[in-house]
């Protein structure tokens, strides 16, 4: 309800200002300033990638968008380590692997995302952070930039940044917390798996706050305008703002369409997970079992077990059987119709299997 | 694997200038009977390939220019040995502090070897991108593909464009 309300306010706001709309004609990637009216993260991330790869690489570009609640992980991160899968399922908030680097962030309509695209040769993380910092300061918030080029107020982060560099183009995109549900953010980004060791990139956890805590008058609309002004000034741009609708025309752009299909697919979302190991132990009535699961690209490479001393209730054959059955399966998506699996589903064998399945599901 | 990306990078590849291979170095072991030519070529996506025509193998790396704009590399994802790759396929990923970049196959062929040192020392990509920081060795399916890549001179122009 609230979501719909906030959204329609922005729509009428933009119409009042007479911004040009790409709703009735084909969207061109050659403008300089875009504001998306869609709040679909799959659409917005694919739109961003399309602009990144189709705009003239020498010209600056700005895209601003908001998304409905979702968790967005970095290109080379481990979703099982970063996302609280149980919270994601119970709240229905999806997680998405983006194409840029960096750590995990939470999006909702209280958070506004900016994306500044530049030629690789003139790309400078500090300079683009300054563009956004000036916008925040113009709204009356005394913000600063930390050593990771994130925007903070005092010691609390209000904005996280990430970058993508391909061919002769680069972008700096980031979040801006205006009135985000920080409690939901905390629940979703707490995965609590200290014994999961992962290659790739880990998130740097930081205390966060909303801009509205410091300046209650800050709104999405105000921030959008401030960033556009700051961007225009920095790069001497006179081009007007182009709003983008998610409609038949934009969804019909092949590159955007394919990008939206790719993001939720297993191959991208899970299959791009760097190698990791997960050590877990559990005490059953008959003793304690330790399992060490090794996985790469979302596939279980192997699983080894340590069994209780003098174990009589469980045979080495059974454990070897379990290892064999797990090998090559998708982590978190165990196929139980595989031949031979039902044979192990008795007594300790079944208990171990159910336990591993549950651990991979959290 | 990354269909959309592949399409985009293929179209970039087709726009590359076609040039005759120019030997950049002559291996010291070449004799009067076996003429070994080592050719170094580049892609628009900032990969370099050193191709040895006596073995048919190309050593793939990212260029010094690529590493300098990425900054300190913290993670490198390499392809799996034995994988068959087509020119323009995404074969890996590099991440520096919060910046992700993709690695595309400069030529088609099969991955013969990967540089395992990079798993423990991703910083080799910064220290010696075109030397100790090499990414993988690809046995070319079609050695003439090397000629479709950029010469050093063309690559320099591309970086400045």
Number of strands of chain A: 17
Low-confidence stretches of chain B: 1-22
Q: For the largest sheet of chain A, list the strands in their spatial order.
A: 1-14-2-3-7-12-11
Largest interface: A-B, 36 and 29 residues
CATH superfamily name of chain B? RNA polymerase II/Efflux pump adaptor protein, barrel-sandwich hybrid domain
Q: How would you describe this protein?
A:
The complex is a heterodimer of chains A (362) and B (161). By secondary structure, chain A is α+β, with helices and mostly antiparallel strands. Chain A is built from 14 helices and 17 strands. In chain A, strands 1-14-2-3-7-12-11 form a 7-stranded mixed β-sheet, sandwiched between helices. In chain A, strands 13-15-16-17 form a 4-stranded antiparallel β-sheet, with helices on one face. A 3-stranded mixed β-sheet of chain A has the order 5-4-6, with no helix packed on it. In chain A, helix 2 (41-54) packs across helix 10 (254-262) and helix 5 crosses helix 8 (220-235). The radius of gyration of chain A is 24 Å and the shape is elongated. Mean pLDDT of chain A is 90; it is low at 1-19. Chain B has 161 residues and is an alpha+beta fold. Chain B has one domain (38-160): RNA polymerase II/Efflux pump adaptor protein, barrel-sandwich hybrid domain (OB fold (Dihydrolipoamide Acetyltransferase, E2P)), CATH 2.40.50.100. Chain B is 22% helix and 32% strand. Chain B has 5 helices and 10 strands, in the order αββββαβββββααβα. Chain B has helices at 3-14, 64-70, 117-120, 124-127, 152-160, and strands at 25-26, 37-42, 47-52, 57-62, 73-77, 84-85, 90-96, 99-104, 109-114, 136-140. In chain B, the strands form 2 sheets. Chain B has a 7-stranded antiparallel β-sheet with strand order 1-2-3-4-10-9-6. Chain B has a 3-stranded antiparallel β-sheet with strand order 5-7-8. The longest helix of chain B has 12 residues, at 3-14. Chain B is globular. Chain A binds chain B through residues 53, 58, 74-76, 99-103, 120-121, 123, 125, 148-149, 161-168, 170, 199-201, 255, 258-259, 262, 267-268, 272, 274, and chain B through 1-4, 7-8, 12, 44-46, 69-70, 74-75, 77, 93, 95-102, 119, 158-161. Strand 11 of chain A pairs parallel with strand 8 (99-104) of chain B.
